[in-house]
Structure formats: C-alpha cells, structure tokens
Amino acid sequence: MSEWRNKTNSQLFYAQKALETCEALPTSDASSLAFKLSSNAAVLAMKEAWLCWLNELSELLAPKQKVPTLRSFASLCDWYSEDTPDVVVLKQNILEKESWVSAYLELESCIAPNIENTTETPSKGIPSDAPYNALSLAQVEIRALSYKYGLKDLNLMLIALKQHINEVRSRQVEW
Questions:
Q1: Distance in angstroms (rounded) separating the CA atoms of residues 38 and 84
Q2: What is the CA radius of gyration of the chain?
Q3: CA–CA separation, 94 vs 43, rounded Å?
Q4: Which of 154, 140, 116 is nearest to 22 (CA)?
Q5: Could you tell me which residues come within 8 angstroms of residue 90 by beta carbon, excluding any fewer than 6 positions away?
Q6: Dihedral angle over CA of 149, 48, 141, 29, nearest 10
Q7: What is the per-residue pLDDT across 39-62, written as a single tens digit (0 to 9) for each?
Q8: How high is the pLDDT of residue 1?
Q9: How many CB atoms lie under 10 A from the CB of residue 4?
C-alpha cells in the first residue's frame, strides 16, 4: 500500500471518529467547546483526507513519475492534462448542484493558513525545527467551521469522498 493511501485512510478514519464524537454530544451542547473542537477536528481531517486523496490519485495517474506534493485541487489540474479521465470526473462534479467536490474546494480555501507567514521565532518559545513551523494556539481561533456545513452535510461530504475513492481504487486494481 502506498504512503498516500495510508495517509488518506488515516485521515478518513479521524474524520469519521470526530463526526461520531460530535453526533454523540447532546444537541444542547452545540455551542460547547467540546462540540467546537470535535467539529473542527472533523473538518480539518476531512480537508487533510481530501489533500491526501489528491496526492494518492496523482500517484495512481502517474505511478512511475515523480510528482511534487499537491496542496490543492488546482495543482492537480495544473499537473495533469485537461482530458485526464479522473480529473475530468472531478471537474464535472463541480458543475453539479450542491457538489461534494465544490464543498471540499471550499474547505481548501477556507482552511489554508499561509504557514510561511505565520511561523513563530525561537524567541517566542517555539523551536525553529517544530513540525510545519507550528502555529501557536494563540494564533488559531477556535470556532466551529462546521456551522457553515451542518453535521449532516459533513457526513454526506465524507460519504461521497469515500465512495469516489473506492470507485477509483477498484478501477485501478482492475488495470
């Protein structure tokens, strides 16, 4: 199994568990910190699952080619020609009403901190070799990103992504 496949599966698992945690909370806790943390965890894991999937798809499309790590759907589209079937399918999905691909693209743009511009210096207490030049907690506003997307919408997005991934993977196995 490829590294990206493992990462995609992990992020899908994390997203599913975070959504289950949100659903297990009483409905009166919708504004609680626990709900906000769980819903943010779900949304962030879903975004990461999407990005990991784009990289896994890239590996499937060009197994013998060294492709740089993709950080967005746009970079996948830039790397592969417009007539690549799997890219065409995703682009066509964007045109559909209430498209799950559009929802993931929105997650991409909503949750895209510019890591280079938000790094802390060692003098502020974060080591310079911190993974991804980690953001400090003070820089991250805790809010429920899923208020825009209700839990039902997040579940539908996750189900759609899983179905798409399974279809592409099973098609690739046949080849």
A1: 37
A2: 17
A3: 19
A4: 154
A5: 73, 101
A6: 50
A7: 889 989 999 999 999 999 999 998
A8: 56
A9: 20
